[in-house]
Amino acid sequence: MKYKFYYIFLFFFSVSYISYAQQNPISKDSIETLNFQAYDNLDNLEYKNAIEIASQIITEGKDQSNAYFTFMGYDLMGTINTEMKDTLQARLNYEKALSIVKEEKIDSLLSWVYINLGNVESDEKENYQKGIDYYRKSININNLQGFEQKNITPLINIAWTYLDENLPDMSLSYLIKAEKLLEKEEVFPRDIANLRTLFGRYHTQKGNYNLAEEAFIIVQRVVEKEKFAAESLEFYKHYAKLSEIQEDYEKAYGLLKKAKELDEKKFEADKLREIQAANTLFNIKEYEHTIASARKEQIINDQLFEKSRDLRNIFIIASIILLIALVAIFFAFKSRKKYIKRLHEKNNQLMTAKNNAERLSQLKTQFFSTVSHELRTPLYGVIGLASILLEDETSVNNKEDLKSLKFSADYLLALINDVLLINKMDADGIKLEKTSYRLSSLANSIARSFEFSLEQNKNKIHLHIDQNLPDKQVGDYVRLSQILMNLIGNAIKFNENGNIWLYIDLIEKTKDGLYKTKFTIKDDGIGIPSSKQKTIFEEFSQVENRNYNYQGTGLGLPIVKKLLALYGSEIMLESKMGKGSVFTFIINLEANNTDEQQEIKKETPKEGTAIHIFENVHILVVDDNRINQKITQKILEKRQFKCSLADDGEQAIALVKENNFDLILMDIHMPKIDGVEATKQIRVFNKEIPIVALTAVELDEMRATIMDSGMNDIILKPYDISQFLTTILRNLNNVFSKSRR
User: Fold this and answer.
1) Per DSSP, what are the bridge partners of residue 435?
2) What is the CATH number of the domain that holds 707?
3) Which residues pair with 572 in a beta bridge?
4) Model confidence at 44: pLDDT above 80
5) In 10 A of CB 65, how many CB atoms?
6) How confident is the model at residue 390 (pLDDT cuts 50, 70, 90)?
7) What pLDDT sits at residue 11?
8) 686-706: buried (b, 16+ CB within 10 Å) or exposed (e) per residue?
């Protein structure tokens, strides 16, 4: 149940009454004494007395044609219905109060009515947005009337509702506003407890556990001093949840134990409340029947005995019903204890299962990381040797075989990357990054990467880029490349002697300055049967076709679907058997508005400039794998770089102390001293030399560790030679540029 301020309401209501009474004289005792008496009855669970007062106020208001009295009666009756869990009747009475306020244009009470309606609606999960709308109406009215301090209640209730719906980002601004208002007013301990509990819940949901801890510690001081039952129960539940997340299970258990004790007290109070409410309803019916009998006695005296007998029968039946209800409540209480015990057992089982799941998840992550490193390391040798031999003019006779070898190795690397990418996306381990790139270069590079596949299947690829799109972009070009390469690769696999088209068309420029762009990948291949058009986006699903022996892993399209979800987009498919397929998706592209002159200054030297600009450049290659060591050495020496070799981090440190190297290529996993530790030790006595990680580790897991150790850049094995050389030249250029200043 949301936060309520009955007595604050009575204060503002009294102020409003005084203003109104100056125009319409009404007994002040009626409006003050009766109201406070009714709310005291509510606190003592004396519903019958409270209802009688509400009925009296409504009757008096109607008899005197006094809108204030009538409004007050219906509002009071709505509060009583809320306490008695009669949501439907509460809503009806509050709406009657609202209609009176609107009809009489008593703006000073609109805010309060909207808060009450908001409490009724937001307590029902499916109506929470309707409740928030009422709270916002209350805030707007208070602002217009200059009563900003009255916004504390609706602000806290909005934040409370959003946190109940697990929408912490939506709650923050309201928490901050409420906090600022409380700073201006006299601070009540109950206000502090409620607001700080909500801050603790917010920081827990956002993962800011230290801030959540600080908030809950403040609440703990307040509730232990003031002994607030409701606030204590709310605090213990959410503080226990935080302690469980922080794996402080002993503390969580202690807090849950306290919450349980309060909950059991609350349960007993609620049961007492229900019994009292049932008894009150019975007494009300008896009272109504008594009044009806008295009135009829004045009219028809000869029917008194018959009416008395009816009342006696009703009393007997109601007593029997009440007795049955009491027996049912007793058994319900016993059942609740049994269910609580079973709930604790289930919680313990869930905790054990949770710990096992977390352990298995860690093992899975370690396994994928190890497999990634162990597979990429030999692949580096295969792809590197194939690339070197392809550049060797003496290997002309074996060029086609070498192309096939490199293609197979590249395919195996792509397969490894796909499996790892699916694993990371399932673990929510991928976020979009922003890097500068050229759209035309990206599209042409993707097309060139499929040269062998296109030649093998005798296909042609056609590119079209809308001229209205800016070529210079900023965004996650790696994820965009993965999407396009999977879709184009899929079209090539299932097409022979055909065509593949890539269209990149601008739809519109948004108000935010982004370019809403449509990507279309079309082919005239075999097409996809309608029965398979939904399942192909599931992992490991394949389109079977006897005419094509290549099936793949079934990971490409699921990867596309998950990557597009990061952009807030989705893939659309149109296909007919024998007429090809059309895949389309729409994303927002962002132009790179970097100054052209700055871009020219930052431009990296091309591979061909290495011989002229970087003559006698001495590079240290640190790698414990002799094959990979030699491949790196051959690639560099072919371009006239001078190379020295080290088998581990210990040798590398010694060589750097004795020689003047221009750059170090550092492997990560090595015996004796690994690459990260070796870099840290080198940085103690040499802070200038560029150190580039040359590694096969899973980059997302190690990037922060690598860069924090003092390394300048990262090259992931196996690499493309041109990208490898570009990274080296960029780091050398940065050093030489500094030396020339």
Assistant:
1) 475
2) 3.40.50.2300
3) 584
4) no
5) 9
6) low
7) 42
8) beebbbbbbbbbbeeebeeeb
